[in-house]
Design brief:
By secondary structure, this protein is α+β, with helices and mostly antiparallel strands. The chain folds into 2 domains: 65 residues; 65 residues, Histidine-containing Protein, Chain: A. It contains 4 helices and 3 strands. A 3-stranded mixed beta sheet has the order 1-2-3.
């Protein structure tokens, strides 16, 4: 029975592809679809290969960095931006009333804040930023005199 079904399938394929009127179009269409299939599989394989090589390259770079020295000290502008990004994350911090400056790795916080605990909190946040060597906290409460640098 299986053999009969196999022979019937072969006969149907021959009739389908070698029909004198529709056969040439059907063969061309089948050839184009088969070629497109293999082209798309080739592109997918190439993308996978590129992705794998990029991942391997990234891992090799990470392995190189493990033994390297820590990053150099960021410049003052970059350090100021990093500190501002850290201390102004909280919506309760009065952004327009605080000035952040950096000089040779030392951060200066100037301005007026409404709560005494916020003064200490902002100083601690600034100290946690990578590259900060020292923090000079000149923040003060409303109505009190601004501290001066020592």
């Amino acid at each position: 029975m299986r053999r009969l079904l196999g022979l019937a399938a072969i006969g149907a394929a021959v009739t389908y592809f070698f029909n004198p009127q529709e056969g040439p179009r059907r063969r061309a269409q089948a050839r184009d679809r088969i070629a497109a299939f293999f082209r798309s599989r080739g592109r997918e394989a190439e993308q996978l290969s590129q992705s794998a090589s990029a991942q391997a390259e990234g891992l090799a770079e990470k392995a190189k960095e493990v033994g390297q020295e820590p990053e150099l000290q960021p410049d003052d502008v970059t350090l100021t931006q990093k500190v501002e990004s850290e201390i102004f994350r909280d919506v309760d911090v009065p952004k327009g009333q605080i000035n952040v400056n950096a000089e040779n790795g030392k951060i200066y916080l100037r301005g007026e804040v409404g709560k005494p605990e916020l003064i200490e909190d902002l100083e601690q946040r600034a100290r946690k930023v990578q590259g900060v060597q020292d923090v000079e906290n000149l923040l003060h409460l409303p109505g009190s005199e601004a501290p001066t640098t020592s």
